[in-house]
Design the sequence.
């Protein structure tokens, strides 16, 4: 019984264990089935999603293939390769478009060169070049470089090309029509011209025949007249030759008469005694102090050391051979001047109040000009004294305008005097010609000549070419004399000029003083103080040979 109970309990336990195991198994199956269903649903959903994604990928791949076909790269599958190829083609397109601007400029320049002679407006060609640059720049500088933008620009270019082609075609049709009309008009006009030409040719042939007949008659008449003209020309030639000979003879006679007249005028001028108007008058005379006062002043251009000649106040004119005295200015003021008496030629005819003063080299507004031609022998010793004469002329206020010394005479004094003269006149020194210095002008007072013979036999040393030098000098002297005559410059013999300068053959030739010490002169001219032991009021008795004061000239 006990064994049955144990078996029954064991069976119960086994049955309970089986039941528990069946329940566990059922629960496990339930949960496994539930999880399976969940995973199946998830997988079904994932498969659906994968299918959808695969569909999208297929669609995207088909679209990419279609895009590649649309943009022209169906065979390139790699994106980077396609991108590089697109960039390469884009750069090539930009380079080609940039070349369009150069080609357009070259075409326009070639056409402009061909159309230069046709009056084309240059601004039109520049406008074409500018339009080409604008089209190219609009493509290259556009910030939007996308495919759509490229299609838009391509559309614009296509529209522009279509309009341009249409405009050109219409212009061509219009021009062709105008040309056809012009050709028709020209053809009609040409026919009219050809008809007129034929008519004119017929008339021309008829006119030529008539003119030929008239020409034959005219030729015969011309030949006859030509013979008459030849005879007349022969007679005219003979008359012309005779008239030319008469004219040459008349000109020669006129030249001879003019030369003789100039010689007579020169001789008459050399014989004239009355020179020029006086420069002023004597206003005060003091032979005691050897001083005179004259009416010339600083405003008239005089200066110290100028020499004047004194002539009698009752003379009809200032004669060249009757001077009374010579004075030299020592003080010049704004009202008058003070001069010292250099020499009185005749003590019985002294200087008096109101006598005339005269300077051959001085004038109120300008210095007198002198021309020295040939030898200048003042003391007739056979030696040239032009340097002394120059000093006397310049001392009288004159200037040397021209100097022509003979051969073997120093040219230095003349050249220096001419330079000083033109410097004083404020004019440039003319260039020297040969031995001559300066230039003769119509403003000259006179040309100085010395026709006197020397009283001393003197033979200057002559060189090897002395004869040639003398010949050249004589030609230069003749030319200078002729030039002076042509300028209406009168001749002035040396002896008359010396009288006008107050020169005396017995007086020594003084050099010109370079300075004048006024304080020293005043000290010399001031009265001396009385000697020691002599009253201040006592006077020095005159010398035995001193004439009384009453005998002194007034």
Sequence:
């Amino acid at each position: 019984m006990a064994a049955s109970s144990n078996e029954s309990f064991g069976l119960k336990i086994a049955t309970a264990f089986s039941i528990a195991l069946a329940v566990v198994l059922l629960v496990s199956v339930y949960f496994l089935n539930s999880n399976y269903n969940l995973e199946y649903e998830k997988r079904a959903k994932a498969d659906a999603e994968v299918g959808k994604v695969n569909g999208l990928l297929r669609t995207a791949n088909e679209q990419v293939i279609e895009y590649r076909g649309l943009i022209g790269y169906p065979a390139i599958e790699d994106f980077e390769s396609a991108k590089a190829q697109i960039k390469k083609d884009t750069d090539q397109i930009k380079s080609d478009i940039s070349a369009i601007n150069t080609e357009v400029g070259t075409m326009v320049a070639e056409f402009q060169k061909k159309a230069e002679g046709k009056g084309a407006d240059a601004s039109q060609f520049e406008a074409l070049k500018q339009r080409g640059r604008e089209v190219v720049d609009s493509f290259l500088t556009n910030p939007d470089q996308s495919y759509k933008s490229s299609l838009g620009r391509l559309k614009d270019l296509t529209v522009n090309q279509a309009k341009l082609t249409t405009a050109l075609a219409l212009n061509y049709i219009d021009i062709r029509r105008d040309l056809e009309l012009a050709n028709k008009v020209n053809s009609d006009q040409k026919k009219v011209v050809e008809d007129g030409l034929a008519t004119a040719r017929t008339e021309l042939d008829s006119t030529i025949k008539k003119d030929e007949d008239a020409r034959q008659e005219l030729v015969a008449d011309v030949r006859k007249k030509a013979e008459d003209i030849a005879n007349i020309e022969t007679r005219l030639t003979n008359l012309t030759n005779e008239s030319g000979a008469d004219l040459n003879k008349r000109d020669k006679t006129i030249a001879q008469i003019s030369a003789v007249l100039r010689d007579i005028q020169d001789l008459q001028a050399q014989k004239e005694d009355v020179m020029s108007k006086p420069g002023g008058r004597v206003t005060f005379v003091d032979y005691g102090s050897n001083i005179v006062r004259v009416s010339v002043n600083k405003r008239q251009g005089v200066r110290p050391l100028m020499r004047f000649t004194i002539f009698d106040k009752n003379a009809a004119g200032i004669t060249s051979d009757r001077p009374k005295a010579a004075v030299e200015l020592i003080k010049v003021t704004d009202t008058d001047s003070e001069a010292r008496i250099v020499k009185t030629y005749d003590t019985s005819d002294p200087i008096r109040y109101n006598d005339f003063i005269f300077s051959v080299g001085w004038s109120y507004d300008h210095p007198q000009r002198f021309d020295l031609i040939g030898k200048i022998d003042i003391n007739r010793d056979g030696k040239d004294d032009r340097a002394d004469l120059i000093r006397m002329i310049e001392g009288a206020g004159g200037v040397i305008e021209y100097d022509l010394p003979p051969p073997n005479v120093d040219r230095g004094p003349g050249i220096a005097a001419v330079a000083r003269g033109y410097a004083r006149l404020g004019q440039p020194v003319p260039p020297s010609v040969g031995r001559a210095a300066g230039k003769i002008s119509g403003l000259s007072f006179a040309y100085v000549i010395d026709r006197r013979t020397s009283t001393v036999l003197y033979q200057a040393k002559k060189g090897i070419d002395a004869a040639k030098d003398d010949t050249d000098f004589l030609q230069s002297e003749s030319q200078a004399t002729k030039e002076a005559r042509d300028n209406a410059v009168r001749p002035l013999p040396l002896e008359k000029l010396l009288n006008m300068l107050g020169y005396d053959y017995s007086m020594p030739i003084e050099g010109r003083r370079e300075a004048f010490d006024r304080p020293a002169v005043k000290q010399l001219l001031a009265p001396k103080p009385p000697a020691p032991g002599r009253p201040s009021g006592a006077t020095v008795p005159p010398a035995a040979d001193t004439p009384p004061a009453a005998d002194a000239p007034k």
Q: What stands out?
A: The first helix runs from residue 2 to 71. The chain has a mean pLDDT of 78. Residues 399 and 421 are 5 Å apart (CA to CA). The chain has four domains: 8-65, 158-271, 275-356, 360-456+466-524.
